[in-house]
Amino acid sequence: MSIKQFLIAGRKLPSKNEPNPQIYKMRVFAKNSVLAKSKFWYFLKKQRRIKKANGEILAVSEIFEKNPTSVRNYGIVVRYRSRTGIHNMYKEYRDVSVCGAVSQMYMEMSGRHRAVHDTIHVVKTVVVETSELRRQKTIVNASNKAVFPKTKLTYRASTPGEKSLFLAKRPNTTIV
């Protein structure tokens, strides 16, 4: 699932009584700009009582990660609707981008809590320092002493003369 982050600005349509209505900006996570605009109107209708028919979108821009090569810890505040009611949650993830962390969150919420994508609302995302992590799952992965086993082991020839381009058998890559 490729989730993208959009910054959407919109307002109520200008009228004689209100020639310069207030502009509302919102960060929305969605697959594309069409779904992002739909989410924007959903939240604006719920919070400010402005319908799509009585409003206009001024700008839609995708937000990209400044440094997509470094791993960071993200804290995400989530609100979702289940069969029994509305619940608030705080989740932590390690990823190279906030979009990747939100994508992990959507996968986990659908797997653990059977939450449908449309019922999950991202309230807030923050970058969390390693010392301030709360969840044990992210604390274990954030330590510098994390060691992972080699799952694919390939043997190399000790000298170039022993190297062969074509072999009569398949390579054995299992750990003995």
TrEMBL record:
Residue ranges constituting the Large ribosomal subunit protein eL20 domain according to the UniProt record: 3-123
Pfam short name (any one): Ribosomal_L18A
Taxonomy, superkingdom: Eukaryota
Keyword Amino-acid biosynthesis part of the UniProt annotation: no
InterPro entries: Ribosomal_eL20 (IPR028877), Ribosomal_eL20_dom (IPR023573), Ribosomal_eL20_eukaryotes (IPR021138)
Gene Ontology terms, MF aspect: structural constituent of ribosome
Keyword Ribosomal protein: yes
UniProtKB keywords: Ribonucleoprotein, Ribosomal protein
Example of a GO cellular component annotation carried by this entry: ribosome
Gene Ontology biological process terms, A to Z: translation
HAMAP family reported in the protein's UniProt record: Ribosomal_eL20
Family (UniProt): Belongs to the eukaryotic ribosomal protein eL20 family.
Record protein name field: 60S ribosomal protein L18a
Lineage, highest ranks first: Eukaryota, Sar, Alveolata, Ciliophora, Intramacronucleata
